[in-house]
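Hi R.,

As promised on Friday, here is the backbone we talked about, encoded as structure tokens. Could you run it through your design pipeline when you get a chance and send me back a sequence?
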């Protein structure tokens, strides 16, 4: 495909972020953390349905979405964003928030097009690390059936491993 994410190479403070989160307290916490990083252009949505409306109205560089929401959950929201024919929105990086990071959820999330995953409780350091990772992410999108996603190799025997990338420790699926 040759397309990279809409946030690739941008400056942290220039990002326009869409938060899709049904919990008002979590939205406030995330917004406060993002403000401390100098990010001020922040849109908010209460679920995937509202998130899709925001994406029709605004160009964003990064989406941070909860996995478990009603009526439209994170899985359906991501699948709709990544749908072929939804260009250029489908190339927006997506960080998933979840309180339940199982191997099955990891596999499913990356299979449908998640860029990265952030496990609750969220700390400023973990959020900043994921955003910086997304800004440096050079992986190109590939078409996989009716969606676009970035390659994320998952090997059953090795699984989730710590690895050092660009001088920082990160989790990677290897």
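Update: got your reply. Pasting your designed sequence below so it's all in one thread:
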């Amino acid at each position: 495909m040759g397309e990279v994410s809409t946030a690739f190479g941008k400056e942290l403070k220039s990002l326009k972020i869409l938060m899709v989160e049904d919990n008002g307290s979590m939205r406030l916490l995330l917004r406060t953390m993002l403000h401390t990083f100098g990010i001020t252009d922040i849109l908010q949505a209460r679920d995937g349905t509202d998130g899709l409306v925001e994406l029709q109205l605004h160009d964003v560089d990064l989406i941070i979405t909860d996995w478990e929401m009603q009526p439209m959950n994170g899985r359906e929201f991501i699948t709709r964003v990544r749908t072929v024919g939804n260009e250029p929105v489908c190339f927006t990086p997506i960080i998933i928030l979840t309180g339940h990071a199982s191997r099955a959820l990891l596999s499913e999330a990356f299979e449908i097009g998640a860029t990265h995953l952030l496990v609750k409780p969220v700390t400023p350091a973990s959020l900043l690390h994921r955003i910086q990772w997304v800004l440096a992410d050079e992986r190109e999108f590939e078409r996989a059936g009716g969606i676009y996603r970035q390659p994320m190799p998952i090997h059953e025997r090795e699984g989730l491993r710590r690895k050092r990338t660009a001088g920082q420790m990160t989790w990677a699926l290897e």
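One thing I noticed while checking it: The radius of gyration is 15 Å.

Thanks again,
M.
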